[in-house]
Every structure is written in C-alpha cells, then in structure tokens.
Amino acid sequence: MLVGAIPLIAGCYQFLLASFHGLRRTTPREPFYPRVAIVIPAWNEAAVIERTIEQLLALEYPGDRLRVYVVDDASTDETPQKVLAKAELHPGTVFHLRREKGGEGKAHTINHGLRIIRAEGWYEAVLVIDADVIFTPPSLRRMTRHLADEQVGAVTGYIKEGSRPGNWMNRFVSFEYVTAQAAARRAQNVLGAQACLAGGAQLLRRQSLDAVGGQIDTATLAEDTVTTLGVQLAGKRVVFEPNAIVWAEEPREITGLWKQRLRWGRGNVQVTRRFRRIWLRRGSAGSLGGIGFALIWFSVFLMPVFMLTSSGALLGLWFLDRGTSLEVFRTLWFLNVVTYLFVTLSSFSIDPATARRTWREGIFFPGLVALLIILYALYPPLFEDTFAGWLRDAGIDPADGLATGILLFAYVWLSASMLAAWLLKLLDSVLPRRLRGLLAPGIYIVGYGPLLCAITAAAYVKEARGAEMRWDKTEKVGAVGELT
Amino acid sequence: MTLPDLIDSGDLEAREQDRAERRLFVRQLLLILLIALVVALRVWLV
User: Fold this and answer.
1) A378 to chain B: nearest residue by CA?
2) How many structural domains does chain A have?
3) B44 neighbourhood in chain A, CB within 8 Å
4) Sign of CA dihedral A198, A7, B23, A341
5) What is the CATH number of the domain that holds A102?
6) Residues in A touching B39 (Cβ below 8 Å)
7) Which of A82, A372, A419, B44 is the most buried (most CB within 10 A)?
8) Claim to verify: residue A240 and residue A346 sit in the same structural domain
9) Smallest Cα distance from A3 to chain B, Å
C-alpha cells in the first residue's frame, strides 16, 4: 500500500519544490550573447521548415552571432529546395547540409551537423532544435544569459503545445506539459539536477558538447536525456529557463501520442539501465544521485508497477480483512485527493494562460472514474448516505452484491484504467481517421494519466522483447498557430 | 535591436521575471493553506 503512495508523495514533493523556485533561483541580470550554431535535423519537413527558419531569423539576438544549419536527412519532399532558397536569401546565416544517405534516425542526423559545425569551429554554443518548433523572439537570449555562468553547461526552454486550432488531445498535452515541464523542471532547478533537456530546445556550451564526446548518443531512443545526464556528470549544471517559450506541434490522436511516448518510454528504460551507477549515489553523482532526484525519476518510470502493486495489495487485503482493506483504500485515495488538488491547482497557478485553455483537461486528467473515487474518498457520506438512499428509493438494496462489485472495481481501477486506455488505443488504430474523434470521451472517462501509464508499461514490454529501435517520426503538418 | 538596447531591457526583464516567481511562491503558499483547510474539514466532518 505504501508503494501506491510513492507517486503521490513524489507528486506533492515535486510541486512543493517548484513553489520555492523563485526563492532559490535568481535570473541572471546581464545578457550574454555567445555565437550560437542552431542545428535543425530535418526529414521531409517541407510543411514547417520555412516558418521555423523565419522565426529563428526574427529572434531578438545579434544577427552576426547566429547561424542556422538545417541538416537535411535525405528528404524526398521539397525540404531541400525550401532551405536552399532561404540560404540564398541569407548567405552566411542559413546553411543547408544534405545527407544523401539518410534514414538512420534523428541522432545520426544531428551528429552529421555537429561534425561540420565543430570542424568550422565558429560556434561558442550549439542549439539543437526540432524542425517544427517555433522559438518566441526573446527565448534564445533568455536561455543564453545563463551561459554567462561558467558552471552552467546546458540550458533548456519551456516547450508548449501550440497547435491551433488544437483538439482535445492537444489540450491534454498542453496541460501535461505544465506539470511535466513548467513545474517538474522548476523543481529540478531547485534540486540542482535536471532529468532532460527538452529535445526541441537544447542549448549546449561548446565545452559541454566536447565533454559528452562532441556528439549526440545514438545507442538509445532518449539521446536528449543521455546528453543532459552526461553534461551534469561532467561537472556542469543544466538549467531550465521557464520564460524561454518554444511552441511545438504535438500529436492529435491516441495512436500518434502512443508512438511518440513509446519511443520516450523505451528511451527512459534504456537510460535507467545505462546510468544504473548514478541512482542513490550522491557521493559520485552529485545531485543526480540524491534521494530527491531518484524519487522524481522513479515515480514516473515505475508508475505502472506502483499502480499494479497497489491494486493487487488492496485486493489481497480484501480477501484477508475487508474492514482493514476499506480503511486502507480510503486513506490511499484521500492522499490521492490531496495530490490531485495540489497538482491540478498548482498547474493552473504556474501557467494561468494554459490553464484558461485547458482547465477541463486538467480536471479530467485522471479520468471521470478516478474523479468519482476521489469524490468518495473526499466525502464518503455522499455515496454511503445520499446515493445509497437513491438506490433504496429505486428498490435496489445497496448492501447486496452490487455494492461489493463497485468496491472491488474501485480497488482495481488503478490497474484496470491502464488496460482500458490500451483498449482505446487499439480502437484508435483500427478506426478510420475521421471517426477517431469519437474516442475522445473515452479518454476523459478513463483518464489521460492512465493512458501515459499504459504507454510506460508497453515500453517495458517492448524493451524486454528487444524490439527493433525505430525512429517513428511524429507527423507534423505545420499546425502551430499565431502565438505570442 | 541593438546590443545596448538588449542589455537595458534584459536587466528590467530579469527583475520582473524574478518578481513573477516570488508571486508564484505566495500563490502556492495560499494554495497549501487552502488544501490544509480541506483536509481539516474532511477529518472534522467524516
């Protein structure tokens, strides 16, 4: 049962740390403008690449200290023509680097660009971004100012979902990013240990790039996490800059999200294994080896295990001692109430603009079923007296098998919700695209959180099977709207 | 934007961002108090 409480305690701990961000960190006052080489890996990005380059050229940053390198991974669409046209318009600033033999994945594409940039030797910092992200004008200078401190090796920005008009899935992702980025990375700033530079906005000091071997890891599916941990193990800090806002287009359907997050999930399994010597070893790994960082990392990484253990234990206890099992269930879910209120309301407070757009998805993040259980845990008489009274009025005895069935259903819901989310994914993959929107109510009922848990569980299975590592590119159509 | 302009606006902006972070701390403090009140009410009522 204690295992079931771990992710709840970790959630509260993380948001508590994030609250102290303003007291523990000070924004650097002096601007700092190193020569930045921007690397954009691109494979068939014709729909988005022109706009991305235009936004980069419009950054509030001295023009002579910025170069944009688009690494074209043997695109078969109009990406090369579009980039070459921009390079012609901005000679010496925009460069088209072509890989004739592509298809090896994003990390290999980035490395091709890094080899050329390092050989040129012009850069003082490198910014690796995705082809579809839109950097807001002040974002880069807000990131580079941290590099004035020699102890800072890398900086990341706040990636926000920017699809307009966004659908229900985009709104769920938007809310998720408030918790997983705006809050979690603030907390990690306070801890002095960052788990991951956002793949779409990784600013690395030249020396830090050298320290991780001058290239991006190609052996895992989480190359950004490997870089992040590598920079910190080399003795430099990694900083999250919450005011450097970068807009990105995220999946619009369950299947697209599943593919993207399965890649991330498998990457996390690989990273956990590869860096097994840092966990809980503060002496050798510094803040990365602290209890706080391990709590944050493993509360996400082991979430499906926690859910399954918790349900199994409740069910086992029910067979042994029904009274105690009910007490434990209420206590666990009351802790859930506290966590839900703290996390949801904190997220609204941390990013009010996103909250105004996604408050429904924030409320329904754990799903309608979990919300009903939360309501029960918050105030049991509501169900035990009021609803039971309604049932009696309807001629149903709430004390019979129905009540037991509902109770057992609530006990196993933490695990069953993952199964339900997986079934929704299966349905999504067989339905024609135009009908997939019909599954939206299913996610509001089952929960977006359980969907993420199910993907993590699927990542374990894929890794255990030793499935082929494929870079399934997230489909991008240039849906990022006019944003400020 | 010229370099001196950027330097002037950078300092003001950084101060404002730090103030916003401190306001966030106060809001979070109030939120914790509110949740503590909910917990107390629940313990008292149930």
Assistant:
1) B42
2) 2
3) none
4) positive
5) 3.90.550.10
6) 338
7) A82
8) no
9) 22
Q: Which domain holds residue A244?
A: 17-270
Supply A213's token pair. Answer: 């071997």
Q: A33 and B6 in contact by Cβ < 8 A?
A: yes
Q: Evaluate whether A19 touches B25 at the Cβ level (below 8 Å).
A: yes
Inter-chain touch A380–B6, beta carbons under 8 Å:
no
Instruction: Say what the pLDDT of residue A381 is.
Output: 82
Kindly state whether A378 is in contact with chain B, defined as any CB-CB distance less than 8 angstroms. yes
> Which residues in chain B have their CB less than 8 angstroms from residue A341's CB?
35, 38
Q: pLDDT tens for residues A215-274? A: 999 999 999 999 999 999 999 999 999 999 999 999 999 999 999 999 999 999 999 999
Say what the pLDDT of residue A483 is: 58
- B28·A378 Cβ contact <8 A: no
Q: What is the pLDDT of residues A160-188, one digit of tens each?
A: 999 988 899 999 999 999 999 999 999 99
Q: Nearest-5° angle of CA A220, CA A226, CA A230?
A: 145
Check if the interface score ipTM surpasses 0.95. no
* A286 domain residue, yes or no: no
Mean per-residue pLDDT over chain A, rounded? 93
Whether residue A263 is found in the same domain as residue A402? no
Does one domain contain both A230 and A317? no
Contacts of B22 in chain A (CB under 8 A): 22-23
Contact between residue A338 and residue B35 where contact means Cβ atoms under 8 Å apart? yes
Task: Spell out which residues of chain B touch residue A189, defining contact as CB-CB under 8 Å.
Answer: none
CB-nearest to B25 from A23, A60, A337 is A23
Same domain, A312 and A452: yes
Helix, strand, coil abundance in chain B, percent, nearest 5? 95, 0, 5
Of A334, A350, A380, the CB nearest to B24: A350
* Same domain, yes or no: A263 and A311: no
Terminal alpha carbon distance of chain A: 45
The reported pLDDT for the residue numbered A201 is: 96
> Residue B6 above 70 pLDDT?
no
Q: Do A310 and A197 share a structural domain?
A: no
Task: Categorize the per-residue pLDDT at A377 as very low, low, confident or very high, splitting at 50, 70 and 90.
Answer: confident
CB-based contact A346 B6, cutoff 8 Å = no
- Contact (CB<8Å) B7/A30: yes
- How far apart (Å, rounded) are the C-alpha atoms in residues A81 and A126? 25
- For A36-79, give the DSSP string: EEEEEEESS-TTTHHHHHHHHHTSSS-GGGEEEEEEEES-SSSH
Q: Is residue A434 part of a domain?
A: yes
Contacts of A138 in chain B (CB under 8 A): 13
Give the separation between CA A348 and CA A178, rounded to whole angstroms: 8
